[in-house]
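Appendix B. Chain record.
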Amino acid sequence: MGVVIPLEESKNKLASVKPLVDLTRPDMERVNQLILSKAGSDVQMIPEVANHLISSGGKRLRPMLTLASASMFGYDGDHHIKLATSVEFMHTATLLHDDVVDESDLRRGKSTARTIWGNQASVLVGDFLLGQAFRMMVDVGSLDALDVLSTAASVIAEGEVLQLSVAKNMETTEDDYLQVIRAKTAALFAAAAEVGPIVAKTDKATRGALKSYGMNLGLAFQLVDDVLDYGGKSADLGKNTGDDFREGKITLPVILSYRRGTTDERAFWKRAIENGESTDENLEVALGLIKKYNGLTDTISRANHYGTIARDALAPMPKSPWKDALMEVIDFCIERVN
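Structure tokens predicted for this chain:
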């Protein structure tokens, strides 16, 4: 007799980031004050460009991971404030650089810094924020935390270059793509979650567990972003739906649809992505092919897989409201597609 095993328990309500926001609110107020202070400069354009992006409404999930992963182990100093701010500055610098590389015009519903101040200013202000991030890391005085975040900065840069090397190449494999997002997106999630237990002076196993949690959460987060670009709303995504297609980006829904398609369908993808024929009409064709070959549903399945690894990494940690909130963030990141 066969036994049916339900793959997922039904949920009465969608997961929320609110428990994490509520728990970290007092510390995030301190982080926000430090952000404004450290983004200041006598060079007028620097705070103008930095504050344009910093104040544009992001959830600040990465610094909240640092705050939560320190507080869940009883840390009560202020080093996690500086490290969380460093993490946010690293993220902001990456966005400024990304928008230049991708020639993006919209970020979180607002014009990108590059469209207002130009590419040069965006790159240079991103460099300023990275410099400020490293100054705060040095202030903390933890070589381990400095090592983790500086390594993440190098890995992120490698991911950017790797993405350039596979850009508009339809022969990119799923493994190639996962290597890109592991470096570009997941590495900072992992570092943000790992430096919390470092300042809380936990053991190496705990550090490793939080690093694994962050890495796999980051992978799930990015895969869901890939889905939202073809199946979401601009307001949720923070940019125009279909921008990845228009920019010729190779993401997992495209890779799956290309590899599963017919010879003619693969020829279409090459024209659209490699030859730059990314018109609105071709976007509709692309959406049809992605649907035909389950590109979105299978990408969500991959995201769920990494979400499960993140849950398992966090599972041995002592029960606490912090742990519950971090667990719920996994569901929140994935359920954005609903």
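Further analysis of this model is presented in Appendix C.
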